[in-house]
Design a protein that fits this description.
It is a single chain. The radius of gyration is 19 Å and the shape is globular. The chain is an all-alpha fold and 309 residues long. The chain has twelve helices and no strands.
Length: 309
């Protein structure tokens, strides 16, 4: 998912007019294959873990049916959105459904000590995504009806969403830094430094830029949220890049339970962009795995080979 985000969302648009046609075709091919492959893999995972969640008799039937319905909405909107561009209202619906699924998963994951850290991440991601979608609706409504005060409120709500994203990334950084692995104590500050460098390069500069700086600046601009919060764009770039890099560290940390490490990796890559199909699927899958892991210790250690029997 990190590869799909870096190539498809960041690098491919940034290289337009800079790289040769052959390079652009190669990047477009790899980005397309990784994105589509991941889309179908996450979609299949959503169906698989939904089936597992439905078999948890200790959960109320209303909870299981509600989560299944939310997963169906996410899947039904994410798959078409991966092929063609949807109307803004459908993107908002996709984000809201994924956020509600994340809150439902957090309600189960917060109780057991083993999955509590994942539950906190789900709450932060859902709250931030809902706040960002609220800001988008307010800004669009204020612009359409020429209500300047409504649009202004929407921008400040976008600032609150950015703050929640910062808390999510900071919490992930804290979680990684407290793992019992010496290499992580060195890798986490390095990730922060790289993210800081990317945010500095993303700041507007006077005069022409070198080719490589132009590519970095363009790629960084692809991670800016809409509507833009009342904060320097470098902050958004720092949080996005830091999330991508820390997701790689989470996956590489093999001592952690795979369900928790993989879940946090998906949360950090997705951020608050739940109106993006891959991000919505990733967070919904994380919520389902967190629910299963909270009630089945075997899922915590082996989430992919979960036994439906």
């Amino acid at each position: 998912m990190v590869l799909a985000s870096l190539l498809g969302r960041g690098l491919h648009p940034a290289l337009q007019g800079v790289a040769s046609d052959r390079v652009m075709r190669a990047i477009s091919l790899v980005a397309g294959l990784s994105s589509q492959g991941l889309l179908w893999a996450l979609g299949g995972g959503l169906i698989w873990w939904t089936a597992g969640m439905l078999r948890l008799a200790m959960l109320p039937m209303s909870y299981r049916m509600g989560v299944t319905a939310l997963g169906g909405v996410v899947l039904g909107l994410a798959v078409p959105a991966g092929v063609t561009k949807l109307a803004p209202a459908f993107n908002v619906g996709l984000a809201v459904a994924a956020a509600l699924a994340a809150l439902a998963g957090a309600a189960q994951a917060l109780a057991p000590r083993e999955t509590r850290i994942l539950g906190v991440g789900l709450v932060l991601a859902a709250a931030g995504a809902l706040t960002r979608q609220t800001s988008l609706v307010l800004v669009l409504a204020g612009g359409a009806k020429a209500l300047r005060n409504v649009a202004l409120v929407g921008l400040w709500v976008a600032g609150a969403a950015l703050l929640l994203q910062g808390v999510l990334v900071a919490f992930g950084l804290w979680w990684l830094s407290t793992r019992r692995a010496r290499w992580l104590s060195l890798a986490t500050p390095l990730c922060s430094a790289l993210a800081l460098a990317a945010s500095w390069l993303a700041e507007p500069a006077a005069g022409p830029l070198a080719s490589w700086k132009l590519v970095v600046a363009r790629a960084a601009s692809q991670y800016l949220a809409a509507p833009a919060p009342p904060a320097p764009p470098g902050i958004q770039v720092f949080l996005a890049v830091a999330g991508l890099l820390m997701a790689l560290l989470a996956v590489a940390h093999r001592r952690e339970a795979p369900a928790v490490a993989g879940g946090w990796a998906l949360l950090l890559v997705s951020g608050l962009d739940l109106d993006v199909p891959l991000c919505a699927l990733g967070v919904t899958v994380t919520a389902l795995v967190a629910t299963l892991a909270a009630h089945d210790p075997e899922t915590l250690r082996h989430p992919i080979t979960y036994d439906l029997t």
